[in-house]
Amino acid sequence: MTSQESGLGARFALAQAISREAGAVALGYFSQRETLVVETKRDLQDVVSIADREVENLIRARVVEVHADDGFLGEEYGVAAGHSGYTWVVDPIDGTSPFVNGMPNWCVSIAVLHQGEPVIGVICAPCHDELYAGASGQGATLNGRVLTLDPSRTIRNAVTGIGANNYVTPAFVGKTVEKLLEAGGTFIRNGSGALMLAYVASGRLVGYYEPYMHAWDCLAGYCLVKEAGGWVHPFPVEGEQLTKGAPVLAAAPGAIDDLKAIAGL
Protein backbone atom coordinates (compact mmCIF):
# COMPACT_ATOMS: atom_id res chain seq x y z
CA MET A 1 0.00 0.00 0.00
CA THR A 2 1.40 3.41 -0.97
CA SER A 3 1.51 6.34 1.42
CA GLN A 4 -1.15 8.03 -0.72
CA GLU A 5 -3.44 5.00 -0.38
CA SER A 6 -2.92 4.78 3.37
CA GLY A 7 -3.45 8.51 3.75
CA LEU A 8 -6.66 8.32 1.75
CA GLY A 9 -7.96 5.33 3.68
CA ALA A 10 -7.33 6.93 7.06
CA ARG A 11 -9.06 10.14 6.03
CA PHE A 12 -11.98 8.25 4.47
CA ALA A 13 -12.61 6.36 7.71
CA LEU A 14 -12.26 9.59 9.69
CA ALA A 15 -14.65 11.49 7.42
CA GLN A 16 -17.32 8.84 7.92
CA ALA A 17 -16.86 8.81 11.70
CA ILE A 18 -16.93 12.60 11.89
CA SER A 19 -20.02 12.83 9.69
CA ARG A 20 -21.93 10.47 11.97
CA GLU A 21 -20.93 12.45 15.07
CA ALA A 22 -21.67 15.78 13.42
CA GLY A 23 -24.98 14.46 12.09
CA ALA A 24 -26.04 13.42 15.59
CA VAL A 25 -25.19 16.86 16.98
CA ALA A 26 -27.05 18.58 14.14
CA LEU A 27 -30.06 16.31 14.68
CA GLY A 28 -30.10 17.33 18.34
CA TYR A 29 -30.30 20.97 17.33
CA PHE A 30 -32.97 20.11 14.75
CA SER A 31 -35.15 18.58 17.46
CA GLN A 32 -34.90 21.86 19.40
CA ARG A 33 -34.97 24.21 16.43
CA GLU A 34 -37.67 26.43 17.96
CA THR A 35 -35.05 27.63 20.46
CA LEU A 36 -32.42 28.53 17.85
CA VAL A 37 -31.59 32.14 17.06
CA VAL A 38 -31.65 32.35 13.28
CA GLU A 39 -29.64 35.06 11.52
CA THR A 40 -29.54 36.13 7.89
CA LYS A 41 -26.49 36.54 5.67
CA ARG A 42 -26.82 37.79 2.07
CA ASP A 43 -30.61 38.11 2.14
CA LEU A 44 -33.66 36.97 4.10
CA GLN A 45 -33.55 33.52 2.44
CA ASP A 46 -29.86 32.97 3.30
CA VAL A 47 -29.98 31.92 6.93
CA VAL A 48 -27.59 30.56 9.55
CA SER A 49 -27.91 29.43 13.16
CA ILE A 50 -25.69 28.38 16.04
CA ALA A 51 -26.19 24.81 14.84
CA ASP A 52 -24.25 25.50 11.63
CA ARG A 53 -21.38 27.11 13.53
CA GLU A 54 -21.16 24.51 16.28
CA VAL A 55 -21.21 21.60 13.83
CA GLU A 56 -18.50 23.19 11.70
CA ASN A 57 -16.36 23.79 14.80
CA LEU A 58 -16.80 20.16 15.79
CA ILE A 59 -15.73 18.87 12.37
CA ARG A 60 -12.73 21.19 12.23
CA ALA A 61 -11.63 20.15 15.73
CA ARG A 62 -11.86 16.44 14.89
CA VAL A 63 -9.75 16.93 11.76
CA VAL A 64 -7.11 18.97 13.57
CA GLU A 65 -6.80 16.29 16.27
CA VAL A 66 -5.55 13.77 13.70
CA HIS A 67 -4.42 15.72 10.63
CA ALA A 68 -3.26 19.11 11.82
CA ASP A 69 -1.37 19.77 8.57
CA ASP A 70 -4.46 19.38 6.38
CA GLY A 71 -6.16 22.43 4.92
CA PHE A 72 -9.75 23.18 5.85
CA LEU A 73 -12.53 25.15 4.17
CA GLY A 74 -15.88 25.53 5.91
CA GLU A 75 -18.88 27.56 4.85
CA GLU A 76 -19.13 29.46 8.12
CA TYR A 77 -15.51 30.19 9.07
CA GLY A 78 -13.65 30.17 5.77
CA VAL A 79 -10.35 28.64 4.72
CA ALA A 80 -7.23 27.64 6.65
CA ALA A 81 -4.25 26.64 4.54
CA GLY A 82 -2.54 23.29 5.05
CA HIS A 83 0.76 21.66 4.10
CA SER A 84 -0.13 18.00 3.53
CA GLY A 85 -1.71 18.27 0.08
CA TYR A 86 -5.12 17.40 1.57
CA THR A 87 -7.92 19.94 2.11
CA TRP A 88 -11.22 19.25 3.85
CA VAL A 89 -14.20 21.10 2.35
CA VAL A 90 -17.21 21.14 4.65
CA ASP A 91 -20.77 22.36 4.77
CA PRO A 92 -21.88 21.68 8.36
CA ILE A 93 -25.57 21.88 7.50
CA ASP A 94 -26.44 22.12 3.83
CA GLY A 95 -30.10 23.04 3.63
CA THR A 96 -30.26 25.41 6.60
CA SER A 97 -33.55 26.84 5.39
CA PRO A 98 -35.30 23.43 5.45
CA PHE A 99 -33.50 22.74 8.75
CA VAL A 100 -34.83 25.79 10.59
CA ASN A 101 -38.29 25.32 9.06
CA GLY A 102 -38.66 21.75 10.28
CA MET A 103 -38.14 19.87 7.02
CA PRO A 104 -35.81 16.85 6.78
CA ASN A 105 -34.06 17.93 3.55
CA TRP A 106 -30.67 18.82 5.02
CA CYS A 107 -27.35 17.07 5.46
CA VAL A 108 -23.76 17.27 6.67
CA SER A 109 -21.40 17.38 3.68
CA ILE A 110 -17.69 16.53 3.98
CA ALA A 111 -15.30 16.39 1.02
CA VAL A 112 -11.54 15.92 0.99
CA LEU A 113 -9.39 17.20 -1.86
CA HIS A 114 -5.94 15.87 -2.69
CA GLN A 115 -3.85 18.03 -5.00
CA GLY A 116 -7.06 19.72 -6.14
CA GLU A 117 -9.09 16.56 -6.84
CA PRO A 118 -12.11 15.51 -4.75
CA VAL A 119 -10.95 12.11 -3.47
CA ILE A 120 -13.43 11.66 -0.60
CA GLY A 121 -17.12 12.48 -0.41
CA VAL A 122 -19.28 11.76 2.64
CA ILE A 123 -22.83 13.05 3.08
CA CYS A 124 -24.84 12.27 6.20
CA ALA A 125 -28.61 12.81 6.14
CA PRO A 126 -29.56 12.30 9.81
CA CYS A 127 -33.33 12.61 9.43
CA HIS A 128 -33.27 9.71 6.97
CA ASP A 129 -30.56 7.71 8.80
CA GLU A 130 -28.52 7.66 5.59
CA LEU A 131 -24.77 7.84 5.08
CA TYR A 132 -23.42 8.26 1.56
CA ALA A 133 -19.70 7.54 1.31
CA GLY A 134 -17.27 7.42 -1.59
CA ALA A 135 -13.53 7.58 -2.14
CA SER A 136 -11.37 7.68 -5.24
CA GLY A 137 -11.13 4.22 -6.79
CA GLN A 138 -13.24 2.66 -4.03
CA GLY A 139 -16.75 3.27 -5.35
CA ALA A 140 -19.68 4.84 -3.56
CA THR A 141 -22.11 3.37 -1.05
CA LEU A 142 -25.33 4.23 0.74
CA ASN A 143 -25.41 2.69 4.20
CA GLY A 144 -22.91 0.15 2.90
CA ARG A 145 -24.82 -0.72 -0.27
CA VAL A 146 -22.77 -0.23 -3.43
CA LEU A 147 -24.15 2.44 -5.77
CA THR A 148 -24.07 1.87 -9.54
CA LEU A 149 -25.94 4.14 -11.91
CA ASP A 150 -28.36 2.74 -14.50
CA PRO A 151 -27.50 3.96 -18.03
CA SER A 152 -31.10 3.49 -19.19
CA ARG A 153 -32.31 6.35 -17.02
CA THR A 154 -32.73 9.66 -18.88
CA ILE A 155 -34.33 13.04 -18.25
CA ARG A 156 -37.48 11.67 -19.88
CA ASN A 157 -38.01 8.60 -17.67
CA ALA A 158 -36.53 9.94 -14.41
CA VAL A 159 -36.42 13.11 -12.31
CA THR A 160 -33.85 15.91 -12.45
CA GLY A 161 -32.89 18.15 -9.55
CA ILE A 162 -32.67 21.92 -10.11
CA GLY A 163 -31.15 24.44 -7.71
CA ALA A 164 -31.63 28.19 -7.53
CA ASN A 165 -30.40 31.14 -5.50
CA ASN A 166 -30.08 34.89 -5.81
CA TYR A 167 -26.65 34.70 -7.43
CA VAL A 168 -28.53 34.18 -10.70
CA THR A 169 -31.61 35.90 -12.07
CA PRO A 170 -35.12 34.44 -11.81
CA ALA A 171 -35.32 34.64 -15.61
CA PHE A 172 -32.25 32.44 -15.99
CA VAL A 173 -33.62 29.82 -13.61
CA GLY A 174 -37.02 29.98 -15.26
CA LYS A 175 -35.50 29.46 -18.70
CA THR A 176 -33.56 26.44 -17.44
CA VAL A 177 -36.75 24.86 -16.09
CA GLU A 178 -38.55 25.69 -19.34
CA LYS A 179 -35.87 23.96 -21.43
CA LEU A 180 -35.95 20.88 -19.20
CA LEU A 181 -39.73 20.61 -19.44
CA GLU A 182 -39.69 21.17 -23.19
CA ALA A 183 -37.19 18.31 -23.52
CA GLY A 184 -39.60 15.96 -21.80
CA GLY A 185 -38.12 16.10 -18.31
CA THR A 186 -39.43 17.05 -14.91
CA PHE A 187 -37.73 18.39 -11.79
CA ILE A 188 -37.66 18.82 -8.04
CA ARG A 189 -35.88 21.21 -5.68
CA ASN A 190 -35.59 20.18 -2.03
CA GLY A 191 -33.43 22.99 -0.65
CA SER A 192 -30.15 21.08 -0.27
CA GLY A 193 -27.86 20.89 -3.28
CA ALA A 194 -25.49 18.50 -1.52
CA LEU A 195 -28.30 16.10 -0.73
CA MET A 196 -29.62 16.22 -4.28
CA LEU A 197 -26.14 15.39 -5.58
CA ALA A 198 -26.16 12.39 -3.25
CA TYR A 199 -29.51 11.48 -4.79
CA VAL A 200 -27.88 11.54 -8.24
CA ALA A 201 -25.23 9.12 -6.98
CA SER A 202 -27.91 6.82 -5.58
CA GLY A 203 -30.05 6.91 -8.74
CA ARG A 204 -32.96 8.74 -7.15
CA LEU A 205 -32.31 11.68 -9.47
CA VAL A 206 -30.89 11.37 -12.97
CA GLY A 207 -29.03 14.65 -12.69
CA TYR A 208 -28.64 17.88 -10.78
CA TYR A 209 -27.99 21.39 -12.10
CA GLU A 210 -27.44 24.62 -10.23
CA PRO A 211 -26.07 27.67 -12.06
CA TYR A 212 -24.03 28.85 -9.06
CA MET A 213 -22.81 26.82 -6.11
CA HIS A 214 -19.88 26.89 -3.72
CA ALA A 215 -17.28 24.18 -3.21
CA TRP A 216 -18.62 23.20 0.21
CA ASP A 217 -22.02 22.52 -1.33
CA CYS A 218 -20.92 20.30 -4.20
CA LEU A 219 -17.51 18.61 -3.89
CA ALA A 220 -18.60 15.72 -1.65
CA GLY A 221 -21.49 15.03 -4.00
CA TYR A 222 -19.19 15.25 -7.00
CA CYS A 223 -16.98 12.51 -5.58
CA LEU A 224 -20.00 10.32 -4.89
CA VAL A 225 -21.45 10.77 -8.39
CA LYS A 226 -18.15 9.98 -10.10
CA GLU A 227 -17.58 6.89 -7.97
CA ALA A 228 -21.11 5.66 -8.76
CA GLY A 229 -20.39 5.90 -12.50
CA GLY A 230 -21.74 9.36 -13.29
CA TRP A 231 -20.31 12.50 -14.84
CA VAL A 232 -19.67 15.94 -13.32
CA HIS A 233 -18.86 19.32 -14.83
CA PRO A 234 -15.42 20.40 -13.56
CA PHE A 235 -15.43 22.75 -10.56
CA PRO A 236 -12.52 25.22 -10.24
CA VAL A 237 -10.47 24.63 -7.07
CA GLU A 238 -7.14 26.32 -7.76
CA GLY A 239 -6.13 29.11 -5.39
CA GLU A 240 -8.85 31.62 -4.58
CA GLN A 241 -11.22 29.89 -6.99
CA LEU A 242 -11.91 27.30 -4.28
CA THR A 243 -13.79 29.93 -2.28
CA LYS A 244 -15.74 31.28 -5.25
CA GLY A 245 -18.90 29.91 -6.82
CA ALA A 246 -19.33 28.19 -10.17
CA PRO A 247 -21.93 26.25 -12.18
CA VAL A 248 -22.54 22.71 -10.97
CA LEU A 249 -23.85 19.87 -13.10
CA ALA A 250 -23.87 16.16 -12.32
CA ALA A 251 -25.54 13.48 -14.40
CA ALA A 252 -26.08 9.77 -14.77
CA PRO A 253 -24.70 8.34 -18.05
CA GLY A 254 -28.02 8.50 -19.90
CA ALA A 255 -28.67 12.15 -19.06
CA ILE A 256 -25.29 13.75 -19.74
CA ASP A 257 -25.88 15.12 -23.25
CA ASP A 258 -29.38 16.42 -22.53
CA LEU A 259 -28.38 18.17 -19.32
CA LYS A 260 -25.24 19.68 -20.81
CA ALA A 261 -27.40 21.15 -23.58
CA ILE A 262 -30.01 22.46 -21.14
CA ALA A 263 -27.34 24.01 -18.92
CA GLY A 264 -25.35 25.35 -21.87
CA LEU A 265 -22.16 23.73 -20.57
Q: How many strand elements? A: 15
Shape: globular
The count of helical stretches stands at 7
The CATH architecture designation of the largest domain is 2-Layer Sandwich
Structural class: alpha+beta
Topology, pairings included?
Blueprint: H1 3-31, E1 38-40, E2 47-49, H2 50-66, E3 71-74, E4 78-80, E5 86-94, H3 96-100, E6 107-114, E7 117-125, E8 130-135, E9 139-142, E10 145-146, E11 160-162, H4 170-182, E12 187-188, H5 193-202, E13 207-213, H6 215-227, E14 231-232, E15 246-251, H7 256-263
Concise account of the structure shown:
With 265 residues, the protein is of the alpha+beta class. The chain has helices spanning 3-31, 50-66, 96-100, 170-182, 193-202, 215-227, 256-263; strands at residues 38-40, 47-49, 71-74, 78-80, 86-94, 107-114, 117-125, 130-135, 139-142, 145-146, 160-162, 187-188, 207-213, 231-232, 246-251. Helix 1 (3-31) runs antiparallel to helix 2 (50-66) and helix 5 runs parallel beside helix 6 (215-227).
